[in-house]
Amino acid sequence: YQRRVHGPPGVSKGNLNIHVQAWYSDQSEITPLFQKYKSAASLQDLTGPNAFNHFNHTPNINQVKLPDHTLDYLFYSNPIHMNEYYVVNHLRRPDIKMYDISDHLPIVMKFVINSL
Asked: What is the mean pLDDT of residues 64-82?
């Protein structure tokens, strides 16, 4: 098994934390999902200046303490309509950060199912 990090289409290896770059693959298996389905976080969200708002994974290495890339995604299609999407960065207690509990932050999508 060789660990690989697959970012959304358009993400440059150079934009990733140096400790993750060794595992990054420019040939992303997730590209067909972006082509076929709607992503809760758009490519613009994931690659734009505020991409850090969608970071949901912290590498299991001591040098990186905060989420530094997006690893988990939510995709959907009709008849689902997304109302809201966000990454849960903290619990209701501000003194506890989610990334202290797990290396994967929860992602939430609120949606409605339209009638066919």
From this structure: 89
